[in-house]
Amino acid sequence: MRAPRTQFAAPQKLLHWSMAALIIAMLFIGVGMVSTVAPKYLTLLNIHKSLGIVILVLALVRIATRRHYGVPPLPADLPFSIRFAAESSQYLFYALMVAMPLIGWGMLSAASHPVILFDALTLPAILPVNPNLYSLLRRTHDFLGLVFFAFILMHVAALLFHKLVRRDGVFDTMTPSLFPHSRHSAPDMPYDQMDRSSGGRPSHE
């Protein structure tokens, strides 16, 4: 019987950190885009649209890798409320990563605006031209953008909680392999065999 994994697979880590950078960049570009009327608006809009489609594709790849590799289990002693928040937030993140680009694509289609990737590839419209639909999708896109910001902040806060308060190894499950893992982590040791009173080191040390 295989021991439970305590690390995400390398492709999952690569997707996680590359998408984190892309999503944060896209959100800030979106904020800058809607707050300016300067000529750079069109440049920001084109980058925003291209990044959105890239994120949509990567999100689908990430879902496939999650189904293939699975995920490390959460600590057995994690309170139900925190476990529920952790597990449900993962699915909400996936939903936002897929829904936001699709809503943006649909919004532009409803406004008869083409989605052109990196000035090279024009994507087909996915919805008919409809001003009312465009307005609805525009408001939805803006609202979900704020929700995405809030979720990212809560995600960072939760990781710091696991790393600095509980010291239960959850933070290290997604640590890039390029960096040495904290000496508090024990990649081959299930969570329930770690002694958090000694900083997360295996209990038999």
Automatic annotation (TrEMBL):
The chain crosses the membrane at residues 14-35, 41-61, 91-111, 143-161. It comes from the Bacteria. This is Cytochrome B561. GO terms for molecular function: electron transfer activity; heme binding; metal ion binding. Residues 8-176 form the Cytochrome b561 bacterial/Ni-hydrogenase domain. Belongs to the cytochrome b561 family. Residues 182-205 are annotated as: Disordered.
